[in-house]
Write a structure and sequence with these properties.
The complex is a heterodimer of chains A (329) and B (506). Chain A has 329 residues and is an alpha/beta fold. Helices cover 33% and strands 26% of the residues of chain A. Chain A contains 11 helices and 17 strands. In chain A, helix 6 runs parallel beside helix 7 and helix 7 packs antiparallel against helix 9. Chain A is globular. Chain B folds into 3 domains: 113 residues, Fumarate Reductase Iron-sulfur Protein, Chain B, domain 2; 160 residues, FAD/NAD(P)-binding domain (3-Layer(bba) Sandwich); 117 residues, FAD/NAD(P)-binding domain, CATH 3.50.50. Helices cover 32% and strands 15% of the residues of chain B. The longest helix of chain B is centred in the C-terminal third of the chain and has 19 residues. The chains are: A alpha/beta (329), B alpha/beta (506). Chains A and B meet through helix 1, helix 2, strand 8, helix 9 and helix 10 of A and helix 12 and helix 14 of B. Bound molecules: flavin-adenine dinucleotide (2 copies), iron/sulfur cluster and FE2/S2 (inorganic) cluster. The site of FE2/S2 (inorganic) cluster has 12 residues of chain A, from loops.
């Protein structure tokens, strides 16, 4: 039964990776082939990826799509077991076990005349298609993205191509302005009193801070929520979030919601549901990688690819947790 | 043939069916009830009176020729029996396990008036399992009709419709959002009631009929129903996307870490195999003291899964009494045997926080039965001052489902006020060429009702396409009063009892 299932699933769908790019130790881009999805995808939507048969279903925002090439681009932060394992195994020519989408309601990128698009942490790439869509819709677009330091900055050229103004914020001031994303927003609000809308994607703390900043100015604020998901079809209720006192399912009712209505504390609480299990999975996996690595070092002469897991393995928990830190946000 | 059997001449006792010991089975995911052996099946087949005007066929939603297949079993022609069943039902190993036979075929069998009725479900399962073990399939000669049919959702409704349309010579593609086909059969009903191997085998049979399965496809979002008809070359579409969307508790504390829907728990455990964590990546919340709210079959499945995952104790919290419980008595019986603690007439009021965002306990209130409500069941009302707290670290809710919104969000299909797809008596929707059936039309119901709907839709789809229908006439139409379908009171909403068993053990 097992063996047959494997053959079947392979024949069923192939999601071949055609491009891979590493922006830093923790951020990487995967572009895979899926013409139908490229045709359907709209800004603000996401996919659910299963990288292998024993894998977890993880939601990832569609960071770009190319209808001519028939591809979908994801930008992923290696934060835990699945995303780090994918960082190792997902290479050009390999295929993902399953990708379903586009999921969620597309964002409304028309109507607004002046828009601020904010991306921090794992939200930098996902904000890009929105900025581009707003621009295509004729809006004046102010892009604000945050990173810890200069080396982590990516897609600056892509953003500049679709933003009328583009502000990079770094924690250490090594690129753009020194400070958090909220400093960038302050700047934008100060210079543009006529902002109609702000869209923010990033860690909940960051989105919470953004919503708090726009509230006094009465600026419409849209945030893209990232609760833990399983099916992404509205069937499990795992992704439930509180919006203005009502419970909504982020996968089918969202993922975008009115930032002034979102109960961010509830979201942050629910993101911690599997902390212990996530730690176990990561430790176990890191250990098995370390052992594999030792065997390899002993046998082969070492060729060290740019995304070598070594630096991850020396300090498995030193990476920023995208959900807890406001870093770059 | 042999001389006519009477109620006195047939074996009086049902063939015994072996079950795993409750203490043993509460720790594993193997099937609870073992299947018949050949001698058991022969014994049970002897109990059939071969009525000339068999009530059981009337009682079966898809009118299987029950005495016909039983007669073949008696003649030890198992292949023949399989041929008889698959003339009407392609999924005997599944139906034999999860159908509510006691309110259908077995419920009307005259043997049941004096003795226990013929164990039709177990015989059906025996034949289904034998066919899987022997690798039998029935692929009729199919003349291509040139029509292309799209099916949305691979649950029992979609599968049944796919099978009938494929047999009518259509080119059928089933689209499924998940990475595996099967619907609730796969992600919901646990292995100890319905092993995944059985579902996969039945799905393979559909493949042999030429049905194509496209998983990882969220219809509505990847392409719409309108596109299927206008651009993708489908001549007709069937929508069987199930109900899904779990109802929420709406009490304080219901978003704490250890509070989840039975659907989430079961999907993680059954489909994502989180019970094998960390060999499989998906995590599963484990509880030592689990409280499950609700008392339908979904709740029973959730409770028994938690027990098998190692919970020390599992409590069932239900606001009415055992008599009103929508789960089958036999299932409650199995759960009781396994050590589930039932708290009837109890309603949760608040889930208590341990200060770290997890569950520490639950506050409940006692209920008593008041006046009957519109469903005819006596309405539970709280007893003033009866609140109490108890310790629990995992709360699972199984209090029903609502309509899945994706089809409504992405198509012009007309929905009713509760969000389910509106159809006419022929299961045709507001859109020409689009039919719908199963839970997305009726709300949460049963496997056989979904299959019946899939077949009914197929029949009307054939009429719509102008294909001659060669299938047996359906007995489901025009029978019974409005609130009843297949002899089941719709309001009961009850599922099958545990009619399970073991390919693994045979
Ligand atoms: C709609 C949506 C869009 C997203 N888009 C992106 C994106 O474009 N790029 C990106 O890098 N990340 C994105 N994420 C987050 C990404 O899904 C998680 O980082 C990933 O699941 C972590 O898996 P892991 O095993 O590597 O880490 P884990 O160790 O399992 O978890 C790390 C953290 O990720 C969160 N998480 C874990 N499992 C899930 C899950 N199944 N669903 C959601 N969150 C989870 C938890 O809060 C946890 O603390 C998105 C999440 C959602 C809901
Ligand atoms: C835990 C549990 C136990 C049960 N036990 C029993 C029992 O013992 N006996 C019994 O008779 N009944 C039982 N039932 C009820 C029975 O399973 C359902 O009534 C039946 O499965 C409904 O079938 P369906 O085909 O309508 O939908 P489903 O089985 O729900 O299948 C729908 C499928 O469509 C897919 N889908 C949804 N949206 C889309 C989309 N947009 N695009 C593509 N695919 C989509 C879903 O992923 C799913 O696979 C149980 C239900 C549950 C939850
Ligand atoms: S009603 Fe009972 S006895 Fe009569 S044919 Fe059917 S199974 Fe046999
Ligand atoms: S992810 Fe399951 S309901 Fe949203």
């Amino acid at each position: 039964m097992q063996g047959r299932a494997k053959v079947k699933s392979q024949a069923m769908s192939r999601f071949e990776i055609v491009t891979r790019e590493d922006f830093s130790d923790v951020t990487y881009l995967l572009e895979f082939h899926h013409p139908l999805m490229a045709k359907a995808a709209r800004p603000g939507q996401f996919v659910i990826v299963m990288s292998h048969e024993h894998g977890e279903r993880i939601p990832l925002t569609i960071a770009d799509f190319d209808r001519n090439k028939g591809t979908i681009t994801l930008v992923i932060q290696a934060v835990g077991k699945t995303t780090r394992e994918m960082q190792q195994t997902c290479q050009v020519g390999t295929t993902l076990y399953g990708v379903v989408g586009p999921m969620g309601n597309p964002s409304h990128t028309s109507g607004a005349k002046k828009v601020v698009c904010v991306g921090g942490g794992l939200g930098v790439a996902p904000i890009y298609p929105q900025a581009r869509a707003f621009k295509e819709g004729g809006a004046y677009v102010i892009g604000i993205v945050g990173f810890r330091t200069r080396d982590l900055v990516f897609w600056e050229d892509k953003f500049r191509a679709c933003c009328d103004e583009f502000i990079v914020c770094t924690d250490d001031g090594s690129a753009g302005i020194k400070g958090l994303i909220t400093d960038g927003i302050k700047l934008a609000i100060a210079t543009h009193p006529d902002i109609d809308e702000l869209v923010a994607i990033g860690p909940p703390v960051m989105m919470k801070a953004c919503a708090a900043m726009t509230q006094p100015h009465n600026i419409k604020t849209v945030v893209c929520l990232n609760p833990i998901m399983v099916d992404g079809t509205g069937m499990c209720g795992g992704c439930r979030v509180r919006i203005g006192g009502q419970v909504k399912f982020a996968c089918v009712d969202g993922p975008e919601f009115d930032g002034h209505q979102v109960d961010f504390d509830d979201l942050m609480l629910r993101l911690r549901r599997f902390k212990a299990e996530e730690k176990t999975a990561l430790e176990r996996w890191s250990e098995s990688c370390r052992m594999k690595n030792e065997i390899e070092t002993a046998s082969l002469s070492r060729q060290s690819p740019a995304y070598s897991p070594d630096n991850l393995l020396s300090e498995p928990f030193a990476l920023p947790d995208p959900f807890e830190e406001v870093k770059g946000g | 043939m042999a001389k006519k059997k009477t109620i006195r001449t047939i074996p009086q006792e049902r063939a015994p069916v072996r079950e795993q010991d409750p203490r043993e089975r509460a720790r594993n995911f193997k099937e609870v009830v073992y299947g018949f052996r050949l001698e058991d099946a022969l014994h049970e087949a002897e109990r059939c009176l071969l009525c000339p005007d068999p009530a059981c066929v009337e009682g079966c939603p898809v009118s299987i020729d029950i005495p016909g297949f039983i007669q073949k079993i008696s003649a030890k022609d198992l292949r023949g029996a399989y041929d008889v069943i698959t003339g009407t039902n392609l999924l005997p190993a599944i139906c034999g396990r999860v159908c509510p036979q006691e309110s259908q075929c077995e419920g009307v069998c005259p043997v049941g008036e004096a003795l226990e009725p013929v164990a039709i479900g177990r015989l059906e399962r025996f034949i289904g399992d034998t066919a899987i073990a022997q690798g039998w399939t029935n692929i009729p000669y199919i003349e291509p009709s040139g029509f292309r049919i799209g099916i949305v959702g691979s649950g029992p409704a979609g599968m049944a419709c796919a099978a009938d349309m494929a047999k009518a010579g259509c080119d059928v593609t089933v689209y499924e959002a998940f990475h595996q086909a099967g619907g609730v059969l796969k992600y919901g009903i646990p292995d100890f009631r319905l092993p995944n191997a059985v579902i996969d085998a039945e799905i393979d049979n559909l493949r042999k009929l030429g049905v194509k399965f496209e998983c990882n496809t969220l219809v509505g979002r990847l392409f719409t129903i309108e596109q299927m008809l206008a651009e993708m070359g489908f001549h007709a579409v069937f929508v069987g996307t199930g109900a899904g969307y779990p109802s929420l508790l709406g009490i304080p504390g219901d978003s704490l870490g250890g509070v989840l829907s039975a659907n989430e728990l079961l999907t993680r455990c059954n489909l994502m195999l989180a019970r094998e964590f960390p060999s499989y990546d998906t995590p599963l919340p484990l509880g030592r003291h689990v409280a499950v709210i609700g008392s339908g079959n979904t709740a029973m499945d959730a409770m028994r899964v938690c027990l098998r995952l190692g919970a020390e104790n599992v409590h069932c919290i239900y606001r009415r009494t055992k008599a009103e419980s929508p789960a089958r008595a036999e299932e409650i019986h199995h759960a009781e045997e396994e050590g589930i603690e039932f708290h009837w007439l109890t309603n949760p009021v608040e889930i208590l926080d341990d200060g770290k965002g997890n569950v520490r306990g639950m506050r409940c209130i006692r209920m008593e039965l008041g006046e009957p409500d519109e469903s005819g069941r006596r309405r539970p009302v709280p007893v003033a001052g009866s609140e109490f707290e108890f310790t629990t670290d995992l709360v699972v809710f199984a209090i029903g489902t609502n309509a899945n919104p994706i089809m409504g969000q992405t198509s012009k299909l007309k929905l009713n006020k509760r969000g389910y797809i509106e159809t006419d008596a022929n299961l045709a929707t507001s859109m020409a060429g689009v039919f719908a059936g199963g839970d997305i039309v009726t709300g949460a119901a049963t496997v056989i009702e979904a299959m019946g709907a899939g077949r009914k839709a197929a029949r009307n789809m054939k009429a719509y396409l102008g294909l001659r229908d060669t299938d047996l006439p359906y007995l489901t139409d025009g029978r019974g009063s409005a609130g009843r379908l297949f002899g089941i009171d719709l309001r009961e909403r009850n599922f099958a009892r545990v009619r399970v068993a073991a390919t693994a053990n045979s």
